[in-house]
Amino acid sequence: MRTSDFEYHLPQGLIAQAARPRGTSRLLVLRRETGAVSLDRVSSLPALLAPGDLLLLNDVKVIPARIRSVRPGGGGAELLLVRPLGGAEWEVMARPAKRLRAGAPLALASGTAIPCERLAEGTWRVEFVPPLDDAVLAVVGEVPLPPYIRRPDGPSEEDRGRYQTVYARSGRAVAAPTAGLHFTPELLAAVCDRGVEIARVTLHVGPGTFRPVQVEDPRQHHLEPEDYEIPCDAASALNRALAAGRRVVCVGTTACRALEHALEIGGGSVRPGPARADLFIRPGHRFRGTGALLTNFHLPRSTLLMLVAAFAGRERVLAAYASAVRERFAFYSFGDAMLIV
Q1: What is the mean pLDDT of the chain?
Q2: What pLDDT sits at residue 223?
Q3: What's the angle, vertex CA 81, arms to CA 135 and CA 224, rounded to 5?
């Protein structure tokens, strides 16, 4: 298996720059046993599920994690929050990282950011004064839209609401679990009316999930771990469903990663509580719990595309992507959806 095996052609015009109204996106349905593809709408999802299924959501909340700053000698620096390190300190991805100097404060819209230590290529340990609580982040932070969504003047207020699921509850994601962006409260209610159980986990999505794989051998790529929590009620619901042979439908690769990691460390059982997912799912992975997957269309050479290929088969996934291109589906975070059953 090579990273170049996960390339595909995508016209630039198919990269969604704005999201459709929730619940109205197009849906490509891929049957992994046969490779058959059909076209539908996200609004049809309840009818595509079966009574007794369990729909697993990632209810993490996206924070305004992109922070613009000014260096002491002038010139800008962009900071993307990665994870808190305790107190007022965070690990951040900085651009341009080489222009930062330890102890040289960066001016923010309100307060300062003090680079303390270079951690790795492109990342720093930074102290924020005042600390980044919700009120401070609302002033200094921006919605962390991916770079392929072009906003010359910065994200809008509409982006702030649209790059968040309607069921987001808590957490510190720096990227949205985008498969969940399609849901409305009404669509979730229709899913329940269908006789589908809903459970929620919280995986704090980090930027590493979305980085392209730069090495030709994916086994040499380091995928950063991501913290997650599974509540007691969700663990019980998942264990009951799996024991009864009911299908678990993961909404997004993040819910899938949390479930598969939990079953791996739990020896086939989901234990409640916090954990850190260090699982890189790629072709060859044996899925323990995921029975179906709702997901968006992912970047070439990405770990997310590799996860989808592991679930449905590389050839069938790439053939489905080619169909989506021919049918002019919208791709990536604000794009259309794919259901793999």
Answers
A1: 95
A2: 86
A3: 140
List the domain range (segments joined by +) for residue 74. Answer: 66-142
Identify whether residues 295 and 313 lie together within a single domain. yes
> Quick check: 318 and 294 in contact, CB under 8 A?
no
Nearby residues of 205 by Cβ (< 8 Å), 6 or more positions away: 58, 60, 62, 173, 174, 175, 176, 177, 226, 254
Question: Minimal CA–CA distance to 66: which of 19, 113, 15?
Answer: 113
By CB neighbour count within 10 A (0-12 exposed, 13-18 middle, 19+ buried), where does 201 fall?
buried
What tens digit of pLDDT does each residue of 230-257 get? 999 999 999 999 999 999 999 999 999 9
Query: Does residue 216 sit in the same domain as residue 282?
Result: yes
**Residue 248's CATH number:** 3.40.1780.10
Residue 218 has a CB neighbour count (10 Å cut-off) of: 19
Task: List pLDDT tens digits, range 158-211.
Answer: 999 999 999 999 999 999 999 999 999 999 999 999 999 999 999 999 887 777
Q: What's the CATH number where 74 sits? A: 2.40.10.240
In a domain, 147, yes or no: no
Is residue 235 located within the same domain as residue 285? yes
192 and 287 co-located in one domain: yes
β-strand partners of 92: 81, 124
Q: What are phi and psi of 290, to 5 degrees?
A: -70, 120
Looking at the structure, tell me whether residues 181 and 124 fall in a common domain: no
Residue 150 Cα to chain centre, angstroms: 19
pTM: 0.94
Q: Distance between CA 95 and CA 340 in Å, rounded?
A: 37
Question: 284-302 burial string, b = 16+ CB within 10 Å, else e?
Answer: ebebbbbbbbbbbbbbbbb
